[in-house]
Amino acid sequence: MTMNAAAVTSERPAMNRTSDSPGASQSAAPWPVEIHDMTVAYHRKPVLWDIDLAISRGHLTGIVGPNGAGKSTLIKAVLGLVPKASGRVTVYGKPYEQQRHLVGYVPQRESVDWDFPVSALDAVLMGRYGRLGWFRRPRKTDREAAMNALRQVGMADFAGRQIAQLSGGQQQRVFLARALVQEADIYFMDEPFAGVDAATEKAIVDLLRELKRTGRTVVAVHHDLQTVERYFDNVILLNMRVVAAGPVADVYTPMNLQNTYGGRLTILDEVAEAVRQAKPIR
Amino acid sequence: MIPFNTMVVLCGTGLLGVVSGIIGSFAVLRRRALMGDALAHAALPGICLAFLILGERHLPALLLGALITGTVGVLVVTTLRHATRIKEDAAIGIVLSVFFGAGVVLLRVIQNMPSGNRAGLDHYIYGKAAGMVVQDVQWIGGVCLVVILAAVLLYKEFTLLSFDTAFAATLGWPTLRLDIVMMGLLVIVTVVGLPAVGVVMMAAMLIIPGASARFWTERLHVMLILAAVFGGLTGIVGTWLSATFSRLPAGPVIVLVAAAIFVVSMTFAPRRGILARTLSHVNLRRRTARQNLLRTMYELVERDLDARPAVTPAALTRLRAWTEPHARRLLAAGARVGLIERTSDGHFRLTDRGLLEAVGVVRTHRLWEMFLIEQAHIATDHVDRDADSIEHVLGADIIRDLEDRLVQLGRWPHGTARPPRSPHEIAVDGGVTP
After folding, report:
1. Contacts of B217 in chain A (CB under 8 A)
2. Residue A144 counted as domain residue
3. B423/B362 same-domain check
4. Are residue B22 and residue B68 in the same domain, yes or no?
5. Is the pLDDT of residue A254 over 70?
6. Beta strand pairing call for A234-239 and A60-64
7. Number of domain units in chain B
8. Is B220 on the interface with A (CB under 8 A)?
9. Mean pLDDT of B256-264
10. Residue B311 sits in which domain range?
C-alpha cells in the first residue's frame, strides 16, 4: 500500500487515489484510523462492502452518500457497535479495542430517549464515565470539565435544564459537549448537523475548527452536499462501498457524486439481493 | 397495638416494595417493563417443578425453581427476538402465556396428588402476604440489602447504560455484562416478590412505583428515591388492607394501592401532571383571548388614542371573527380584572392599566408582523393571521431580539413609547363613540 500524505485515502479503488504529493514522508507515523477490508451485513444483507480507508491526522473528514449508503453503519462498525462480517480497524496502528480512550463519539440525536430524567450537565458528565472506572462518582474536576464543555458550545445557561426541555439544536450541542469532555484525539460524529438551527450550526462549525486547530482528527457523517466544501478538508463518498475518498478539492467532483448518488442499481446491489434471495433469513 | 405477625408481614412487603420500586425504575427507563411481567409468569412452572422434585414446600427451593424457569423465559424472549423476525412484544406475549399455562397445568397435577392440597402453591398465582413468617422476611430483607447496595454502587453505570448503551460501549464499558447484572437484579427481585404478590401481579409492583415517581421529578436520583417510597407504601398499605378485610388476596389489593398512587401522581404532579398541563393550557387560552381583546380595542381607537373613545361590542365583531355575545363575555372578563371600564351609556373603554397592557400587546404583534414580512417573506395581507398564533407565546428575550433586528434593518423606530402604525390596513368603521 502506498501511504499518501494528501488525506483520506481509499486504498483499494484506484480511481480515487490521489497522486503522491512531494512531501509524502510521513509513512512512518501510523494513521489515526485505518480500516482494512471491512464488510458489514444486517440480516445477511451486506450494507458495506470491502471498505479500505485511512483517515489523515488533524483533518476534518466528511462522509457523504445517499440514504441507506451505510454512512452511520461505517462509523458504528469502526466503533464496534455493529458486528463486522470481516475486516479490522486500527487506531494509530493498534487494534481499536486497545485505543478506545483516544476515540470520542457523537451518536445521532435520535438514538436516545431525551425524556430521560437527567439535566444537561448530567448528560455531559457521562462523557467522563470512561475514565472514571467502576463505582467511582464524578468529582469536582469532572464537573468543571463538563461546565467548560457546555460553555464551549454556548450552553452554559442550560446546564440545569432537563434534556427534554432543550431544542433539537441544543440537544445536539449537549452531545458534542459530552464528546468534548472525553478529551479524545479522534472524534466520530453521526450527522451532527441534522435538523439543527442556524445558531447550533455555527457553534458546531466553530467547534470543528477549534478541534482541528488543536490537532484533533474528526470524521463526521454529513448530509448537506452544499456545505461539504466549506466544512471539510477531506471527503469520503460512500454508497455501500467507497466510491471515492480524498481531499475535497480532488474527489468532490460531479463525476464522483454522480457515481455515488446515481439512480442505477449497482452490480453490488444486485449481488446483495441475489445473496439474500438464495439464503433466506432464519 | 399491631400483632407481631402482622408487623413481620408488613416489614416484608414494605421492603419488597422498596426494592421493586428501585429496580423497576431502571426497567421502566430501559423499556424493559414487560420483561418483568414475562419473567414473573415464567417463574410459576419452576415453583411447581421444584415442589414435584422435592415433594415438600421448602421456600428457598421453590424460589430457586422460579429463578431457573424465570431466567429461561427471559432467555427464550431474547433468543426469539434475535434469531427470528419476531418483535420483542410478541416474543414476550408468547413466553408469558406458554410458561404460565405450563405452570397452571403443573399446579393442577400437584393438587391432584395426595399431599398437593396442603402445599398451598395456588397462592403463588395471586400472592398471599399473610403467609410470610419471620424467616421469610429475614430472607427478603437480605436480598433487598444486596439489591439496594448493588443499585447504589452501580448507579453511575446503570444510568449510562439506560440512557445511551452505544455510547457506554464506546467508552469501553462492558455493556452486555452490565445489562446481565441489571437483568439479574430484576430476576431476583421478581422471584422474591412472588410468594407475597403472586406471578400475575408482580409486574405491576415493578412498573407502577417508577412510573408514578417519574411524574414528580426530572432527576434520576430523586425518581429512584420516590419510587422506593411509593413502592414501600404500596406494599405496607396493600398488605394491611388485605389483612384487615379478610379473604382479599394480597397481590390484587397491592396493585390497586399502587394504581391509586399512580392516578394521584398522574393527576396532581406539578408540570408533568394532567391538572398542571390542563391549567397551563387554559391559562394560555385565557391570556390569548385577553390579549386579542386588548389589541382590538387599541386598534379601534388608535387614531384618537389620547381621547380614548369608548367602543361598542358590535364594533369589536367587525374586526374579529367574534359573535356579539362572545365579545360581551370577553369585555366582562376584561372589566373584572380592571383592564376595561363600562361607560355610562353602556359602551366600553380601556382603563389606564388596560391601555398600558394593550400597548405592549400591539407592540409585540407588530414587531412579529414586521419580522414575518421582512424575514419570512409573508405577504402583507396575510401577516395578521400568521402573526396571531405565535405572538402570545413569545418571551421577553425573543421580543427584545426581534426589536433589535428590526431597528437594525431600519424597519422599526428606536425607543418609542407607542408602537408604529400597522403594516396592513385595519378597517375601522363606526361603533366608536368619543
Report:
1. 117
2. yes
3. yes
4. yes
5. yes
6. parallel
7. 2
8. yes
9. 96
10. 279-433
Q: Which of B157, B163, B171 sits opposite A112 (nearest CB)?
A: B163
For the entire predicted model, the pTM comes to 0.82
A68 touches B: beta carbon within 8 Å: no
Asked if residue B266 and residue B357 are part of one domain, the reply reads no
* Contact call for A126 and B170, based on CB within 8 A: no
Q: Which of B266, B238, B232, B268 minimizes the C-alpha distance to B250?
A: B238
Determine contact, residues A180/A149, Cβ cutoff 8 Å.
yes
Q: Which domain holds residue A261?
A: 14-278
| Interatomic CA distance for residues B162 and B149, integer angstroms | 18
Amino acid A16: pLDDT: 35
The answer to whether B29 contacts A281, with C-beta atoms less than 8 Å apart, is: no
Residue with cell 448537506: A224
From residue B394, give the alpha-carbon distance in Å to each of A106, B397, B399. Answer: 32, 8, 7
Residue of B nearest to A133 (CA): B173
C-beta atoms of B214 and A117 within 8 A: yes
This model of the complex carries an ipTM of: 0.86
Q: Do B179 and B173 meet the contact criterion of CB atoms below 8 Å apart?
A: no
User: How far apart, in Å, are the Cα atoms of A165 and each of A168, A199, B19, B167, B219?
Assistant: 9, 17, 30, 22, 13
Whether A92 maps to a domain, the answer reads yes
CB contact under 8 Å between B173 and A129, yes or no, is yes
State whether B108 and B201 are in the same domain: yes
Task: Judge if B253 and B358 occupy the same domain.
Answer: no
Q: Is A82 in the B-facing interface, judged by CB distances under 8 Å?
A: no
CATH number (domain holding residue A116)? 3.40.50.300
Contacts of A86 (CB under 8 A, 6+ apart): A37, A38, A39
CB-based contact, B401 to chain A, within 8 Å? no
- As to burial, measured by CB atoms within 10 angstroms (0-12 exposed, 13-18 middle, 19+ buried), residue A48 is buried
Are B394 and B302 within one domain? yes
> How large a percentage of chain B has pLDDT more than 90?
42
Q: Which residue in A has a C-alpha nearest to residue B85's C-alpha?
A: A282
Q: Does B139 lie in the same domain as B120?
A: yes
Name which of A51-60, B189-198, B412-421 the model is least confident about: B412-421
pLDDT tens digits, one per residue of B49-83: 999 998 887 888 988 999 999 999 999 998 998 88
A 173-232 residues inside an 8 A Cβ radius of B: 178, 182
Chain A environment of B153 (Cβ under 8 Å): 135
For every residue of chain A, DSSP letters joined together read: ----TTS-B-SS-GGGPPPPPTT--GGGSPPSEEEEEEEEEETTEEEEEEEEEEEPTT-EEEEE--TTSSHHHHHHHHTTSS--SEEEEEETTEEGGG-GGGEEEE--GGGS-TTSS-BHHHHHHGGGHHHH-TTPPP-HHHHHHHHHHHHHTT-GGGTTSBGGGS-HHHHHHHHHHHHHTTT-SEEEESSTTTT--HHHHHHHHHHHHHHHHTT-EEEEE---TTTHHHH-SEEEEEESEEEEEEEHHHH--HHHHHHHH-SSPPHHHHHHHHHHHHS---
Of B167, B78, B161, B88, the closest CA to residue A81 belongs to B167
**Mean pLDDT for chain A overall:** 85
Grid cell for residue B142: 437480605
Say if A160 is an interface residue toward chain B (CB within 8 Å): no
